[in-house]
What we know:
By secondary structure, the chain is α+β, with helices and mostly antiparallel strands. Helices cover about 25% and strands about 40% of the residues.
Amino acid sequence: MSTTVTADIEVDVPVRVAYDQWTQYESFPHFLGGVESVRQLDDTTTHWVVKVGGVEREFDADISDQVPDDHVAWRSTAAATPHRGRVDFRPVDADTTRIDLTIEWEPEGFVEKAGAVLQVDDLQVKRDLKRFKHFVEERNAPSGAWRGEVHGGVEGNDPDLRP
């Protein structure tokens, strides 16, 4: 049984600030519930440690598509923790950005399956976006930035290098 969660929020920062902060994956534990740590292994691979329902899991995720100030898409690399997602950034005006987030995964075990049925996952994602809003608005500047593009899981800005 696959679960899909969608959520959106408007943040009171320019699109570049919202996007640049989102690409600082190692800051995710500051606003994503259940995320213990994220390490950036290279431009397209992150290593995650999460705790869901008291169960700790580790997995890698690859950035499959990324365009600055527009979107980031990812997918896990292990069959044991299948998930994927996409976050889109749309300017509402010069100082406001709409963020649309979609996450799909396969819940495992009773706790995760019950959470999906009871829509606990929806509430968690909405809370996480609110925490991101607070985090980025409070700073009003990203803690870093990565402006490269990724297409088909391959990093590069040169169109001749894209698959």
